[in-house]
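Hi team, as promised in this morning's meeting, here are the two structures we talked about. I've kept the exact order from the run log so nobody has to guess. The first one is mostly here for context; it's the second one we should focus on when we meet again. Sequence first, then the predicted structure tokens.
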Amino acid sequence: MITAKIPIEENERLYELYRYQILDTPREDDFDKITLLAARICKTPMSVISFVDRNRQWAKSLVGLKKLPADRNASFCSHAILTARLFEVRNALRDKRFADNPLVQQKPKIRFYAGMPLITSKGFKLGALCVIDTIPRRLSAMQRFALKVLGRQVVKLMELRIRNKEITHTAEMQQRIISIMSHDIRGPLCSIKTFLDLNTDERFSKEEQQDLLSALSTNVSRTLQLLDNLVEWGKIQLQFTERKQVVKLKELVNECIEQVELNILLKQNKIINEVEPDVLINIDKEAVQFVLRNLISNANKFTDKGTIRVSFFTDNNKCFLKVKDTGVGLEMDKISQILQDTGMFHTSGTRNEKGNGLGLSLIKSYLNKTGNHIEIKSVLTQGTSVSFSLCSVEELIPIFA
């Protein structure tokens, strides 16, 4: 058996595959109709829509097979994605690439295979629409043409799925932004108007007016922070797909620290960046900065004259950033409230800093969207550590001396 070569642009190909969010999804009638039509036109007992993942092949639709063997190395489709043309094996027993392949020697005992690569608009070959038989044969010109047309239809279906998701996603984001605007921003603005009305009331002394002005300043600052979070989160959410780039993680953490450093100094806290300087990682930089900056701000909120540490670690094939503080800690019921999918977390900081919980809510929304998650550990009076996953370990970039 000859194993198929890995495509030159394999990482980019895989990123395109994951962008379509089709792996491990349930069977769908529209895809099943295409495989059934392919089998009938080509007069084969088996037909498959298969996608080639990093170490496996996965079937979205099957005709004549209950399941598709998962090993990429034994996959005929891994050979099909190396060409832009129809890939045809007329007699696998006489083909040195496949003669001793377990799919040939054992069930389903493939003798004939023809696969049309599923090519996206960017030119990446994600898998194949293939027809399979247990006897040697060849396709007619009409059957080859039909497979090409049906292969294009599979890609169009995939593009339609992702467009529908984008439309639904955008509508949901618009509704949520409207909800936040009406609830969390309308309130502070009403308070400002109330103050302006009271400020002209001669019944209040100058001292009382000064107290009202101080309260107004705090209210305005909180509203501006809310707006900044909302705008940044909206940008991240509405792009729908991640914009990954290779970054030096320590430098990214330093940038986040610089943006909130004044608030840290005002509370006499010390922040330490423990990320090693040689960690290179392929991530959505803006989104990770958004999450990290909010977590550092929260750590500072619940810490006074203490220490905040930011570190990097890997666990269970995932990369994590951790923000650990020596603050007041959180009770278990509050941790459970934070981790809930709905609702916002409201509490005051060590200097009675107010918060609306939007930052944590938006963090969870982003992490859920990208298949990542957040972990919280806390001990009252001793501090809290919050870890969030960035990506898989495969996104780490090795550094060669």
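And here is the second protein, the one for discussion:
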Amino acid sequence: MGAELNQTPSGERLHIGFFGMRNAGKSSVVNAVTGQNLAVVSDVKGTTTDPVKKAMELLPLGPVVIIDTPGLDDEGTLGALRVEKARGILSEADAAVLVVDAAVGLGDEDRALLALLDERKIPHLVAMNKADLLDAVPADTDGTLYVSAKTGAGIRELKEALARIAKPGTEERHVIADLLTPGDTVVLVIPIDAAAPKGRLILPQQQTIRDILEAGCAAVCCRDTELAGTLTSLAKPPRMVVTDSQAFGRVSKIVPRDVTLTSFSILFARYKGDLAELVKGAAALSKLEDGDPVLISEGCSHHRQCGDIGTEKIPAWVRSFTGKNPDFRFTSGGEFPEHPDAKLVIHCGGCMLNEREMKSRIERAVSAGVPIVNYGVAIAHIHGILKRSLEPFPDVAALL
């Protein structure tokens, strides 16, 4: 249990998708690359029926999520759904490996996928599997890798090539550290309610605390009910107060106007999304009418409880703010439409999604002409404090 708690969160790992036709040996290559029996292998076509994900350490890359996908040539009604799921993985893949049966060569579906990978600017490799069955490997491979999951030939070279194309960018991203100066104090407001996980903090809170500490600053945590006393006890005002979005209204009345106030959700909108686009989307809240479809989407599939923020609190706040009764629809986990059909999308902070997936969802909404906003931005707008909560980001605040 201790090792599991100390793992790099999936949303912070490189996501590597393995794609290919049925019986190209894709799952066997996945197992050879990972050194584990991650995927079930069989001579029967279509053994992999759903994407299989595994968080692991893959040298020389480090922490990754390996994704084995269904065959791109699956048939029938169920097969079409499986192919759709496989292609859906592209929205979260930081890198891709197309596995091809070396004896068969590239097919039309392979070429279509390569074109899509190029279009979406996803780094990728082509691995010609079953090379042990060839009389000879072509002298000019044109960058294509010839491997054998059966004998292990070329697997080390495939892993090294993956490390080269999937290496994270040199630009270091921060949740909050770049907004601070060593020695600053940041107060984090963390309500403990029925939805709070027993015995632990949720991921955005953990990551924010870690980033504050790495910046050489102090993180002071309290509930909203103890915030006033906490602020009074400090020798000097904190550099910033960061609150859970649900407590925005109460917290804004307690924090002095000369102290910067923002939320975990807004910090994460910048960290792995598009804060400017989400802020622009907030304006659509005021334009909603009765019956307008509003999609509320969460990146994880948690057990919903009484008072759930997505299914209960957000709809109630929107109805109160607009005086209208929109038609709320809900998705969770990997269920996010390719072309959202709604007047507005209200998305969670995306802490369980990687950066590529979160940005892909925003882009899909924008491409469909649908405004998108996240929980934190929406709640701040509803409470009339969005401009104040964007003070750490003056360029974005100027959009209001």
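Starting points for discussion:
Residues 1-5, 42-49 have pLDDT under 50 and may be disordered.
The domain at 2-165 is CATH 3.40.50.300 (Rossmann fold).
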